[in-house]
Specification:
By secondary structure, the chain is of the alpha/beta class. Helices cover about 35% and strands about 15% of the residues. The strands form 3 sheets. A 6-stranded mixed β-sheet has the order 9-10-11-2-1-12, with helices on one face. α1 packs parallel to α16.
Length: about 350
């Protein structure tokens, strides 16, 4: 199933309702405070989890923005978040390889049905990483000419070190797998990753390397979905049962992927909301959070309700992640969308009473 829409209002004159500030966003969140606290069980039997793509951004942890005052430690914040949403996306694993010790603390601080989706490390998807962020023993194993570089690509590394990156990633997330709390690994490919045979082979190689670790693919070049390539792209993912990451994102740019609805795996459907802030989407030299500084209007979220209903009927599980996590924009929109789905789909909470009743604050 696939449907493309073009209803993406981009530029707004006068006061910007999509960046009203944390206080205004918080007022909207109050009306739907409990909406996203548990997974939603749909009439078709699928499960929908809604959350955000961060719980630690400084704009989000600022006093009184999302967390209650007094929730100042990492433990308190994660416990509060996990009582508010049933899923989170971890983006830190894109910049640095995950640590099993840290993953163990995440398991200890969250309910057993809380889910973590993790972004694959940059070197796993053809993107550069800062050499200084690699583990010390990996840096020491680099040939001298590579060790002297500020940034590295996987193609620069000896084969044994490329293998080691994948092995370290799997070891780092092993505690989440053991606890049944690993949702999926997000393989986000850059906008210079084009729809050619070699790229499709790269995706298949990544899935083979991950083995039985569930993964999903997000593509950042519109060329995968132009008139020539869209059907072939979706057929490739469907034939290989690779979950396609559907997106709501700024339009009209080289990295703009249209909001296509396509479930390419019966196991998992995944949607990421990036906001619609065109002027910063491809900008360089700005804080990453500025790209996603966009509060969706209720009408923009409502556009997705029928699409999500259609997708949920085709997949056993659905993850919806708000990547517009400037301040409380993502958390507000997550709650609002969850409330809409409850009303429109007749969805019910799954898994008992809201978890925040027992969360540490």
């Amino acid at each position: 199933m696939a449907r493309e829409t073009t209803e993406h209002p981009q530029r707004i004159s006068g006061p910007n309702p999509h960046d009203p500030g944390a206080e205004a966003a918080g007022e909207r969140a109050t009306a739907v405070e409990r909406a996203a606290s548990l997974p939603l069980a749909t009439p078709s039997g699928s499960t929908i989890r809604i959350g955000t793509a961060s719980w630690t951004d400084p704009t989000m942890t600022a006093p009184g923005v999302f967390y209650p005052r007094g929730a100042d430690s990492a433990e308190e914040r994660l416990a509060f978040y996990a009582g508010t949403f049933p899923i989170v996306e971890v983006d830190a694993t894109y910049y640095a390889l995950p640590s099993a010790k840290v993953a163990e603390t995440w398991v200890a601080r969250t309910p057993p049905d809380f889910t973590f989706d993790l972004k694959a490390h940059a070197l796993m998807t053809g993107q550069p990483t800062e050499t200084k962020r690699l583990p010390k023993d990996v840096r020491e194993a680099l040939p001298p000419d590579l060790a002297a570089r500020a940034r590295l690509y996987a193609k620069d590394l000896p084969a044994e070190l490329r293998d080691e990156i994948w092995n370290r990633f799997a070891l780092g997330i092993a505690p989440l797998r053991a606890a049944g709390q690993l949702g999926s690994v997000l393989l986000q490919y850059p906008r210079w990753f084009f729809p050619v045979g070699e790229s499709r082979d790269v995706i298949l190689e990544a899935r083979a390397r991950l083995g039985d670790i569930r993964s999903a693919v997000e593509l950042r070049s519109e060329t995968w979905f132009n008139e020539k390539n869209r059907d072939r792209t979706l057929a490739f993912l469907t034939d290989n049962a690779i979950p396609f990451v559907m997106v709501d994102a700024p339009q009209g740019l080289k990295s703009s992927v249209p909001p296509i609805m396509a479930v390419t795996s019966p196991d998992l459907a995944l949607v990421r909301f990036h906001g619609r802030r065109v002027e910063t989407w491809e900008a360089s030299g700005i804080p990453v959070v500025e790209r996603f500084r966009y509060l969706y209007s209720p009408s923009e979220l409502a556009e997705w309700v029928p699409r999500i209903r259609e997708a949920a009927e085709a997949a056993h599980e659905m993850h919806i992640l708000m990547n517009n996590c400037y301040a409380n924009y993502g958390s507000t929109n997550a709650r609002e969308l969850a409330a809409m789905l409850e009303e429109e789909l007749g969805a019910e909470h799954s898994g008992g009473p809201p978890r925040s009743d027992t969360a540490s604050t």
